[in-house]
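Re: How this chain folds, sequence and tokenised backbone to follow
How to read it: Take the token row as a discrete description of the fold.
Start of record: The labelled sequence and token lines come straight after this line.
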Amino acid sequence: MTVPEFPTEHRYPEESQASNALVLGVVGILIQIVAPFALWMAMKELQAIEEGRRDPEGASTARTARVLGIIGTCLFAVGFIVVLLILGFGLPVPMN
């Protein structure tokens, strides 16, 4: 009589990208141009987790990356608007 072999761990078809999104989120706080990419990557990761293609263990990391991506994207948008206002209205740029 043979004993059936059961997998010891559940494998998902795709590898988690949550940690990559988190790294981009942290970098996006300092260098805001990468923050939208962190947000995009985190949203894709959360969608893949909901669809069962990726390990749900990375959901909290992906959520954290999403929040950091949102904050970095907002900082980027504010900075972009400030630059447009300075260039558009010819405001003097402080040179300290």
